[in-house]
Amino acid sequence: MKRIALILTAFILGACFANAQTNPEFLKFKGGNFYGESGTVYTDAQMLQLIGRDIYDETYVGALKQYRTGRNLIIIGGVTALAGLGGCIGILAANSNEEGVEGMSESVIMGFYGSMLVAVLGGVALDVGIPLTIIGKSRLNWIADDYNAKQSGVSLQLTGCSAGPGVGLALVF
Question: How much is the pTM?
Answer without folding.
Answer: 0.68
